[in-house]
Amino acid sequence: AFLELSGPSEIKGVWKDSATLPCAYVPVEDLVQQTLTWTVVHDKGSGAVIRRDDSGDHVLLSEYRDRVSIPKDAPGNVSLLILSLEISDRGTYTCQVTWRDSNNSLIAKEITTSLEVVKVAATKPIIRAAEPGLTLPAGASTSLSCEAGGSPPISYRWFRRGPAGTAELLSSRAELAWPSLRPSDSGTYFCEAHNR
Question: What CATH number corresponds to the domain at position 53?
Answer without folding.
Answer: 2.60.40.10
